[in-house]
Amino acid sequence: MSTTTPKTQPARPAFWRGCADSAPFLLVVGPFAVLFGVLATEAGLNVTETMAFSIAVIAGAAQFTALQLMVEDAPTLIILASALAVNLRMAMYSASLTPYLGAAPLWQRAFLSYFILDQSYACSIVEFEKRPQLSISERLAYFAGTSMPIVPAWYIFTYAGAVLGTQIPEAWALDFALPITFLALVAPMLRTPAHVVAALVSIVVSLLMAWVPYSLGLLIAGLVAMIAGAQTELYFDHKNAAKGLAQ
Amino acid sequence: MIDQTQLWIVIIGLGLGSFLLRFTFIGLVGGRPIPEWMLRHLRYTAVAILPALVAPLVAWPAATDGQLDPPRLLAAAATLAVGLATRNVFGAILAGALVLYSSMYLLG
Questions:
Q1: Nearest-CA neighbor of B89 among A26, A116, A186?
Q2: Interface contact A45, partner B, CB < 8 A
Q3: Which of A54, A98, A205, B70 could form a disulfide with A221, with the two C-beta atoms 3.0–4.6 Å apart?
């Protein structure tokens, strides 16, 4: 009988851990992609155009925003500005991943940039903070793993939605799938008073600005709400700091 | 109907723009710290813009020619309530769909 004690269990390779951690997100990504495919075809896009959209942009919320504004006949510049504003959070993800992945060669950083998604970011940042001892190549492998289930699913389910597209009867009220999905995405984000204030300001200003031509109201509301959120955060920071001093 | 030229400008422009947003910090800015005020604003982009997109669609749905529609309003409220209570995106969508269909059936 062998007396050698097993060495510490080798950690599952980082790549597979990434895959496993992001796989549950498929429950949201799949239906979201189908919905984009369906709404894009209903707006008059063919399958090639719909797929080009999903492959080039690979960010659901921005794609829906652009689609909705195109249906509303907004000018091209406004569409681009509004949809990119929705995607500004990607810049935040990129900034927040830089301390962990910034040491990789430039071509790898350029390549991985395409795969910065809500899901790959959410998993990676938790993992990198939890295991600071990971090497740069393990981190890259983990990050690659997190986008492995999500990205092909995004393409495939967009395609399924585009093919299904116009066959869905009007009685299903699919016009309301987009508002419901976005509300469902936003509600869990309302973690702090500042997030709540930003969302409320966003609603009020967008309704007040509905008369502004070229769908510019969306950008105005977004900008004002962002400032409102940042200011609320500052206010609470100062209040807490003052409380700390008083004790 | 959506204009073809505009569509392709949007697809390509949004694709390039999104890539640049993803690449700028990790690719170009590198290790330099991002100013705190910028991060503070970026934190709120999603909650600042998505509600602004949704609010007019809830208040004035195109499907009812812009008339306030009780089933759609109830569905929006249910989605928000379940999303806030459970923090579960999937559950919130299900709740919204359920309320939408049942109230369209009962009220319509």
A1: A186
A2: yes
A3: A205
Would the ipTM clear 0.95, i.e. be above it? no
Q: How confident is the model at residue A160 (pLDDT cuts 50, 70, 90)?
A: very high
- State yes or no: pLDDT of A24 exceeds 60: yes
Domain ranges of chain B: 54-107
Domain ranges of chain A: 14-187, 190-247
Q: Is A214 left (phi over 0), alpha (psi -120 to 50) or beta?
A: left
What percent of chain A is predicted at pLDDT more than 90?
A: 60
Least Cα distance to A19 among A119, A133, A126, A131 occurs for A119
Measured in whole angstroms, the distance separating CA B52 from the mean position of its chain's CA atoms is 8
What global pTM score does this model have? 0.81
Give me the helices (H) in B1-108, please. Answer: 4-23, 36-42, 45-59, 70-86, 89-107
Distance CA A91, CA A108 (A): 17
Instruction: Measure CB to CB from residue A183 to each of B30, B52, B80 and give the nearest one.
Output: B80
CB-based contact (8 Å) between B66 and chain A?
no
B37 Cβ partners below 8 Å, 6+ apart? A230
Are A70 and B2 in contact (CB < 8 Å)? yes
Q: Name the minimum distance, in Å, from the CA of B94 to any CA of chain A.
A: 9
DSSP per residue over A79-97, as a string? HHHHHHHHTHHHHHHHHHH
Q: Cβ separation of A44 and B2 shorter than 8 Å?
A: yes
* pLDDT reported for residue A1: 43
Residues of A in contact with B10 (CB under 8 A): 66, 70, 76, 79-80, 83
Residue type, A42: E
pLDDT > 70 fraction of chain B, expressed in percent and rounded? 95
